[in-house]
Write a structure and sequence with these properties.
Elements lengths: L6 H18 L6 H15 L7 H7 L6 H8 L5 H16 L5 E10 L9 E5 L4 E15 L2 E10 L2 H4 L2 H7 L10 H14 L6 E4 L1 H4 L2 H9 L4 E5 L4 E6 L2 E6 H6 L7 E8 L2 E11 L8 E9 L7 E9 L4 H25 L9 H25 L9
Parallel strand pairs: 1-5, 5-6
Antiparallel strand pairs: 1-3, 2-3, 3-4, 6-12, 7-8, 9-10, 10-11, 11-12
């Protein structure tokens, strides 16, 4: 049974939040938005059902949402610098050399056509095409906890090429169209340049299907487990020597004893158990590195398969690859938790700057919760607060 929360606990959490605010305080040019940023974080962490401007203002004891709206729209502060503070905070408290960097996206359902980047597009949240914005996120999962490191708003090509819409939504002039894998690469570049400790990268088919992203990760010698389509052509050994073979054809040739039943981690209903197998690919490559096609098979429906292209140390085991593959599901759960706990999708801003500011503060609030939980579980690392 969980122990009762004490007044000492509450005082400790308040002190930790104040220390986190001190970390980001230099990013604000004036005292008023600096103080309001703390009130915004407190509101995001409050039990309020909605975390939009009106409700956050009520939590702060303010009669109108004007101040909260100014914080997101007009105050002078650097959301990217706060993003860097977020990353440093996560590493200091949750850093783990065996951690996995996960790229994933989520949709934010919106009405109308004015909100920056909104259009009818596929939303993984809804599982269908909806009128929405799409955010691409870089998450960090390790033995101490899970949190976000970075975020980018996906700006569809139609938006990127429409000068009038760009101007109305405040899209910076230097911003150009970038695919979701290109946004993921930019965030991974920032994380690796900052020395974030991690051993693997994973992501779904949107990212695994981009060969340029896979090549870039390999050039950085960054191990990865990325989902690909069943039709993905892969170089493998055949009876006639090395040749390109579709992922599904490689799987079809596997013997029955190639499969092992393994858990990819805990899910909401218990361990996620599947049958797994791998096939060596890239036969003429570096002997110190391993190249595999990993395949997951459903226990309930053996025809339900998922395919992953993997690169990593030659000694990586099947269980190692399965562990990394399972982290993608974990991050989907973290995104949903951030929506429910800190209002990630509760914003009512329409412009570029407001989106980045709200999302960044939400990710910071979520990281605070992750660190607090790690402390309570005895997994706190310490580090620079």
């Amino acid at each position: 049974m969980d122990r009762a929360i004490t007044l000492e606990d509450v005082d400790g959490w308040a002190a930790e939040l104040a220390a986190l605010h001190v970390r980001i305080a230099p990013r604000f040019a004036r005292p008023e938005p600096r103080r309001r940023a703390l009130a915004y974080l407190r509101g995001l962490l409050s039990p309020a059902e909605r975390k939009n401007g009106w409700h956050l203002a009520e939590q702060a004891g303010e009669a109108t949402p004007d101040g909260m709206q100014r914080l997101l729209a007009a105050a002078t502060w650097d959301a990217d610098a706060v993003r860097d503070d977020l990353r440093a905070y996560v590493v200091a408290h949750l850093g783990d050399a065996d951690a996995v960097l996960v790229v994933d996206e989520t949709g934010f359902l919106k009405k109308g056509a004015k909100s920056v980047g909104v259009q009818r597009q596929y939303s993984g949240t809804a599982g269908r095409i909806e009128n929405c914005q799409v955010g691409v996120f870089l998450a960090y999962t390790g033995r101490h906890g899970r949190a976000f490191l970075d975020r980018e708003l996906y700006l569809p090509q139609g938006w990127a090429e429409d000068a009038a819409r760009r101007a109305e939504a405040g899209v910076p002039p230097a911003t150009v169209f970038r695919t979701k894998p290109q946004l993921a690469k930019a965030m991974l570049e920032r994380a690796l340049a900052a020395g974030v400790p991690a051993s693997w990268v994973t992501g779904d088919e949107v990212y695994g299907g981009d060969r340029r992203l896979r090549v870039w990760l390999e050039e950085r010698d960054m191990p990865h487990v990325l989902v690909v389509k069943r039709t993905e052509p892969l170089v493998a050994t055949t009876a006639r020597g090395p040749a390109q073979v579709a992922a599904a054809d490689l799987v079809a040739a596997l013997p029955a004893d190639a499969w092992r039943r393994l858990s990819a981690g805990e899910g909401s209903k218990g361990p996620r158990v599947y049958d797994w197998a791998r096939v060596a690919i890239r036969p003429l490559s570096d002997p110190d590195r391993g190249y595999w096609l990993l395949v997951r098979r459903s226990l309930a429906d053996p025809a339900d398969l998922a395919h992953y292209v993997c690169y990593g140390p030659a000694g990586a085991t099947l269980a190692d690859l399965v562990r990394v593959a399972g982290q993608r599901w974990a991050v989907e759960e973290v995104i949903e938790a951030a929506k429910g706990e800190v209002g990630l999708d509760h914003y009512e801003v329409r412009r570029w700057t407001g989106w980045y500011r709200h999302i960044t503060l939400c990710l910071l609030a979520h990281a605070f919760l992750a660190v607090t939980r790690a402390d309570a579980a005895g997994g706190e690392k310490g580090g620079d607060r």
